[in-house]
Design a protein that fits this description.
Layout (H helix, E strand, L loop, with lengths): L42 E8 L2 E8 L4 H12 L1 H4 L5 H12 L6
Antiparallel strand pairs: 1-2
Helix pairs in contact: 1-3
Length: 104
Protein backbone atom coordinates (compact mmCIF):
# COMPACT_ATOMS: atom_id res chain seq x y z
CA UNK A 1 0.00 0.00 0.00
CA UNK A 2 1.29 3.45 -0.84
CA UNK A 3 1.90 5.90 2.00
CA UNK A 4 0.43 9.37 1.69
CA UNK A 5 0.82 12.74 3.36
CA UNK A 6 -1.98 15.03 4.42
CA UNK A 7 -4.21 17.10 2.19
CA UNK A 8 -6.95 19.67 2.78
CA UNK A 9 -10.45 18.34 3.41
CA UNK A 10 -13.52 19.44 1.48
CA UNK A 11 -16.91 19.06 3.12
CA UNK A 12 -20.34 19.23 1.59
CA UNK A 13 -21.44 21.47 -1.24
CA UNK A 14 -20.88 21.21 -4.96
CA UNK A 15 -17.68 20.17 -6.69
CA UNK A 16 -15.61 22.06 -9.24
CA UNK A 17 -16.79 21.68 -12.87
CA UNK A 18 -15.59 18.60 -14.73
CA UNK A 19 -13.46 19.03 -17.84
CA UNK A 20 -15.25 18.81 -21.17
CA UNK A 21 -18.88 19.48 -21.99
CA UNK A 22 -20.33 17.60 -19.03
CA UNK A 23 -21.00 19.07 -15.65
CA UNK A 24 -22.09 17.01 -12.67
CA UNK A 25 -23.67 18.44 -9.56
CA UNK A 26 -24.22 16.65 -6.31
CA UNK A 27 -26.01 18.06 -3.27
CA UNK A 28 -24.96 16.59 0.05
CA UNK A 29 -26.03 16.95 3.64
CA UNK A 30 -25.98 15.01 6.86
CA UNK A 31 -27.21 15.27 10.41
CA UNK A 32 -25.41 13.90 13.44
CA UNK A 33 -25.70 14.54 17.15
CA UNK A 34 -23.66 13.74 20.19
CA UNK A 35 -24.72 11.17 22.73
CA UNK A 36 -26.66 12.73 25.64
CA UNK A 37 -24.24 14.04 28.26
CA UNK A 38 -21.22 13.97 25.93
CA UNK A 39 -19.33 17.00 24.65
CA UNK A 40 -18.40 15.62 21.21
CA UNK A 41 -19.72 13.36 18.46
CA UNK A 42 -17.79 10.47 16.90
CA UNK A 43 -19.83 10.37 13.67
CA UNK A 44 -18.41 12.46 10.80
CA UNK A 45 -18.64 12.68 7.02
CA UNK A 46 -17.00 14.43 4.11
CA UNK A 47 -17.20 14.74 0.33
CA UNK A 48 -13.92 14.67 -1.55
CA UNK A 49 -13.44 15.26 -5.28
CA UNK A 50 -10.35 14.05 -7.12
CA UNK A 51 -9.79 13.79 -10.86
CA UNK A 52 -13.50 14.19 -11.59
CA UNK A 53 -14.57 11.45 -9.17
CA UNK A 54 -16.58 11.91 -6.01
CA UNK A 55 -15.93 9.98 -2.82
CA UNK A 56 -18.34 10.32 0.08
CA UNK A 57 -16.84 9.13 3.35
CA UNK A 58 -18.82 8.27 6.48
CA UNK A 59 -16.96 7.46 9.69
CA UNK A 60 -18.29 6.05 12.96
CA UNK A 61 -15.73 6.76 15.71
CA UNK A 62 -17.02 3.75 17.72
CA UNK A 63 -17.89 5.11 21.10
CA UNK A 64 -18.91 8.47 22.47
CA UNK A 65 -17.27 11.72 23.40
CA UNK A 66 -13.96 13.37 22.58
CA UNK A 67 -11.96 10.15 22.02
CA UNK A 68 -14.46 8.88 19.44
CA UNK A 69 -14.59 12.32 17.80
CA UNK A 70 -10.80 12.48 17.56
CA UNK A 71 -10.61 8.96 16.10
CA UNK A 72 -13.29 9.78 13.51
CA UNK A 73 -11.62 13.06 12.48
CA UNK A 74 -8.28 11.26 12.15
CA UNK A 75 -9.81 8.52 9.96
CA UNK A 76 -11.46 11.17 7.79
CA UNK A 77 -8.03 12.43 6.65
CA UNK A 78 -7.25 9.21 4.73
CA UNK A 79 -9.37 9.77 1.59
CA UNK A 80 -8.15 13.28 0.70
CA UNK A 81 -4.56 12.35 1.61
CA UNK A 82 -4.63 9.20 -0.55
CA UNK A 83 -7.21 9.82 -3.30
CA UNK A 84 -6.06 6.90 -5.45
CA UNK A 85 -6.66 4.23 -2.81
CA UNK A 86 -9.27 1.60 -3.61
CA UNK A 87 -12.26 1.76 -1.22
CA UNK A 88 -11.18 -1.36 0.73
CA UNK A 89 -7.64 0.03 1.15
CA UNK A 90 -9.06 3.37 2.34
CA UNK A 91 -11.13 1.55 4.97
CA UNK A 92 -8.10 -0.42 6.19
CA UNK A 93 -5.98 2.74 6.25
CA UNK A 94 -8.63 4.60 8.25
CA UNK A 95 -8.60 1.82 10.82
CA UNK A 96 -4.82 1.83 10.95
CA UNK A 97 -4.46 5.56 11.61
CA UNK A 98 -6.90 5.40 14.51
CA UNK A 99 -5.68 2.20 16.10
CA UNK A 100 -5.03 2.80 19.77
CA UNK A 101 -6.86 1.52 22.81
CA UNK A 102 -9.88 3.59 23.82
CA UNK A 103 -13.15 2.90 25.53
CA UNK A 104 -16.15 2.15 23.34
Amino acid sequence: MRRCGTAPRQTGGAHPPLPGDHELAIATGAATRRYPGETANGDVWTVHWHAGLCRITLVDGLGHGPEAAHAAQTALTVVPACPDLAPDDAIRSGGRVTRRPRRA
